[in-house]
Amino acid sequence: MERERKRIETKTSRTAEFTCMYRAASYVETRECYKGDDTIAYILVPGFIKLILRFPRICHLYHRFLGPKGIYEYVVARTNYIDAVFKDVLEKGFGQIVIFGAGFDSRAQRFDHLNRSTRIFELDAPITQEEKLEAFKEKNIMIPENLVYVPINFNRERLPEKLTEAGFEEGRKSLFLLEGVTMYLSHAAIESTFGYIRNVSGRGSLIVFDYIYAGVLRQEHRYYGERNTVRTVLKAGEGWSFALEEGEIEDFLGTYGFSIKDHSSAQELEERYFKNREGEIVGRINATHSLATAAKE
User: Fold this and answer.
1) d(CA 52, CA 142)
2) What residue ranges define each of the domains in the chain, with the CATH number in brackets?
3) Confidence at residue 269, expressed as pLDDT on a 0 to 100 scale
4) Taking CA atoms, which of 8, 91, 215, 274 is between 20 and 30 Å from 224?
5) Is residue 44 a contact partner of residue 140, using CB atoms and an 8 Å limit?
6) pLDDT digits (tens, 9 = 90+) for 108-164
7) DSSP secondary structure of 224-274
8) How far is CA 131 from the centre of its chain?
9) Do 109 and 142 form a contact (C-beta atoms < 8 A)?
10) Beta pairing, strands 289-296 & 206-212
11) What is the spatial distance between Cα 223 and Cα 210, in angstroms, rounded to a whole number?
């Protein structure tokens, strides 16, 4: 883990860069179910990536034969899933949104027109966050007044102090978003983070996150796309360390005072986001992950 931690502390997160690239690819899609609306991701990717994206066949071949199987589809589905929760929370007037490991996320910008008074906090490793801010400045992407950037090393710095200093208010109804985060944290960091959320969240608060199955860490090779996905993550120097057993999610969340509102496996995400007008599933999703939404009891 020490080598992996140093990677994220000294260089921009590769997984954040890949997520941005996948969202940009989705933005230029013409295929049914694959089309996304993250125009900012497309603006942010380098020129040579934009050039490649002009040739859909090359992209499709990469996703099918070179990239981890089903990860592109997973990112498309996960983005749609979390976008829906994010917009709903803004429309309902939640007091705060906290985005852990924000990477190159642009929801604060894309959905600013829905935001009446919700304060948004983006937490991430300092290097990745600095790279993002420089890119936003270079591309003239606006920073909403109610958006606060909070640099933090999740495994080494204390979350309560960082968020309190940034202006986070305890006890308010809030959304806590951990997209592509839990699997990279140590068990101690998971306990600290979820324990903190339990202690400071108001009743009715929501937490949205994805996680990997423990069988993936044990390399049981039971899940679609598992082999290439694990290999790619390790090559990026950001290996996974936390996972949950199948069927463990409710007990895990109950420990922190949250109850499940929605729990979606790869198959359920396919049904929701990759079923075309004829009722056919047109994209297969990497099955190493699941998505969960839970509410504070």
Assistant:
1) 27
2) 2-296 (3.40.50.150)
3) 98
4) 8
5) no
6) 999 999 999 999 999 999 999 999 999 999 999 999 999 999 999 866 788 999 999
7) TTHHHHHHHHHHTT------B-TT-HHHHHHTTTEEEEEEE-HHHHHHHHS
8) 18
9) yes
10) antiparallel
11) 16
Which three-class secondary structure state does DSSP give residue 117? coil
For helices 14-27 and 71-92, angle between their N-to-C axes, nearest 10 degrees: 80
CB 98 within 8 A of CB 154: no
Phi, psi torsion values for 148, nearest 5 degrees: -120, 125
CA distances for 79 relative to 1, 72, 74, 151, 203, angstroms: 28, 11, 8, 23, 26
152-188: pLDDT as tens digits: 986 678 899 999 999 999 999 999 999 999 999 999 8
DSSP state of 238: -
Give pLDDT < 70 ranges for the chain.
1-11, 61-66, 154-155
Contact call for residues 243 and 217 (beta carbons, < 8 A): yes
Amino acid at 87: K
Question: So what's the pLDDT on residue 4?
Answer: 42
Q: For residues 40 and 105, what is the distance between their CA atoms, to the nearest angstrom?
A: 9
Distance (Å, whole) CA 297 – CA 259: 7
Cα separation, 53 vs 57, in Å, equals 9
Contact 289, 81 (CB under 8 A): no
Q: Which helix (H) or strand (E) holds 136?
A: helix 126-138
Q: How many residues are there in the chain?
A: 297
Q: Hey, is 225 helix, strand or coil?
A: coil
Nearest to 42 by CA among 29, 28, 58, 59: 28
DSSP letter, residue 218: T
